[in-house]
């Protein structure tokens, strides 16, 4: 009996309930106590699953994570629930009622699709991963909508399904894979599979995918959640605008479409600095944000926008700039001491200085807060000090 089989038995579930909130610092003591009444391998399995569930809360929320089953790779590589739900709703809105989910992992996307009322064939070649996906569909009451199949995705026929969703593996033995053709399966195969979909298709890719690697017949969408860039999606078929680019921010969703604007010109720093959301930057839509706020770039090579007026936009965070100076740690330290700044947020673009390194050097103290931007202005290393605009 493998770990997941045991953990799904009444004894296993009871053991999982007992170790659910175990503090890592107390894990050894808990394990020692439980091994008096349970086999050691089963205690280890329960404690290991409890750790994975605790890590998964950030992606799936406490309610789902507390019922689901995970593998270490599954927690690391699965889609955040909010992002998966957004994508599932977009597919549902296109009239999709069945999806072939290829490279399904532990079933995070399949769960979101099923909750949107879509029937799912979830395919993965790893036996343990498939077992986790089945366990999760069952644990969340979605087994009637999710069929899990252990198979090589390249050998699965997708013709009976309205849409295809592919999430190729982007990690190898040496960490992240940046070359799309080194994905498993390669991006070229995934694109070919997407083009055969009867209605629509979506391919999940790394947010750092080069724009030149995006097929001409795909729409490219970069998605962030809470300000963190999570993924890029290539859309094909119904609802997709070939060659179009967009940035979508969650929660919301708020979507900024590309309009083909040329890069904005660099200008002297104004009263306000706008920090575009990471999805906007990845989608190369900084020009659209600059047009919204009536601004230009601080530097031709840096994705910071500056303007004289405050024009709130959901696609960038605005800061009021109070001071500008050439990069100089001693002068910054003196300024912060004079202003009584004890809470210092350090942001950087175009600077080699590490924020924590700078924070240690200036040793901020006092009741006030400030933000310092380490960047370049007209090519020169510069520090801009300010605060969130109101």
Describe the structure in your own words.
Strands 3-2-1-4-7-9-8-10-11 form a nine-stranded mixed β-sheet, with helices on both faces. A seven-stranded mixed β-sheet has the order 13-14-12-15-18-17-16. β13 and β14 form a beta hairpin. α2 (10-19) packs across α4 and α6 (81-93) packs across α7 (108-115). The protein is built from 13 helices and 18 strands. It is globular. The protein is an alpha/beta fold.
Q: Could you give the distance between the termini? A: 59 Å
Indicate the percent of residues in helices.
25-40%
Give the strand order, joined by hyphens, for the main sheet.
Answer: 3-2-1-4-7-9-8-10-11
Mean pLDDT equals 94
Rounded to the nearest angstrom, the radius of gyration is 24 Å
Largest sheet: 9 strands, mixed
Characterize the overall form. globular
Q: Estimate what percentage of residues fall within beta strands.
A: 25-35%
Please mark out the parts with pLDDT under 50 across 5 or more consecutive residues, or reply none.
none
Question: Can you tag this structure with a few keywords?
Answer:
390 residues; alpha/beta; seven-stranded mixed β-sheet; globular
Explain the layout of strands and helices.
Layout: H1 3-7, H2 10-19, H3 27-34, H4 40-65, H5 72-77, H6 81-93, E1 98-102, H7 108-115, E2 119-124, H8 127-139, E3 146-150, E4 163-166, E5 171-172, E6 175-176, H9 187-195, E7 200-205, E8 219-225, E9 228-237, E10 245-250, E11 254-257, E12 272-276, H10 278-282, H11 286-293, E13 296-297, E14 305-307, E15 316-326, H12 329-339, E16 341-348, H13 355-362, E17 368-377, E18 380-388
Parallel strand pairs: 1-2, 1-4, 2-3, 4-7, 8-10, 16-17
Antiparallel strand pairs: 5-6, 7-9, 8-9, 10-11, 12-14, 12-15, 13-14, 15-18, 17-18
Helix pairs in contact: 2-4, 6-7
């Amino acid at each position: 009996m493998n770990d997941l089989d045991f953990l799904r038995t009444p004894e296993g579930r009871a053991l999982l309930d007992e170790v659910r909130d175990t503090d890592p610092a107390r894990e050894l003591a808990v394990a020692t106590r439980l091994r008096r009444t349970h086999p050691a391998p089963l205690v280890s399995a329960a404690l290991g699953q409890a750790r994975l569930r605790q890590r998964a809360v950030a992606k799936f929320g406490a309610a789902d994570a507390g019922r689901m089953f995970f593998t270490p790779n599954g927690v690391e590589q699965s889609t955040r629930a909010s992002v998966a739900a957004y994508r599932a709703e977009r597919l549902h809105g296109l009239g999709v009622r069945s999806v072939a989910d290829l490279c399904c992992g532990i079933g995070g996307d399949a769960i979101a699709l099923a909750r949107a009322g879509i029937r799912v064939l979830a395919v993965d070649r790893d036996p343990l991963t498939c077992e986790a996906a089945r366990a999760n569909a069952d644990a969340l009451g979605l087994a009637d909508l999710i069929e899990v199949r252990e198979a090589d995705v390249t050998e699965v026929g997708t013709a009976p399904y309205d849409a295809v969703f592919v999430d190729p593996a982007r990690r190898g033995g040496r960490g992240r894979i940046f070359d799309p053709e080194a994905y498993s399966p390669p991006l070229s195969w995934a694109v070919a599979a997407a083009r055969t979909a009867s209605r629509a298709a979506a391919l999940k890719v790394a947010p750092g995918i080069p724009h030149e690697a995006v097929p001409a017949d795909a729409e490219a969408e970069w998605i962030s959640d809470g300000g963190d860039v999570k993924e890029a999606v290539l859309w094909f078929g119904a609802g997709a605008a070939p060659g179009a680019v967009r940035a979508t921010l969650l929660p919301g969703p708020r979507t900024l479409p590309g309009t083909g604007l040329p890069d904005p010109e660099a200008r002297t720093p104004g009263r306000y600095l706008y920090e575009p959301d990471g999805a906007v930057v990845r989608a190369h839509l900084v020009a659209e944000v600059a047009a919204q706020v009536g601004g230009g770039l601080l530097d031709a090579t840096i994705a910071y926008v500056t303007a004289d007026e405050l024009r709130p936009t959901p696609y960038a965070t605005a800061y009021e700039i109070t001071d500008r100076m050439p990069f100089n740690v001693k002068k910054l330290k003196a300024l912060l001491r004079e202003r009584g700044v004890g809470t210092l947020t350090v942001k950087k673009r175009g600077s080699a200085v590490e924020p924590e390194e700078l924070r240690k050097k200036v040793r901020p103290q006092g009741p006030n807060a400030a933000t310092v931007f380490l960047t370049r202005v007209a090519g020169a290393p510069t520090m801009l000090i300010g605060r969130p605009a109101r």
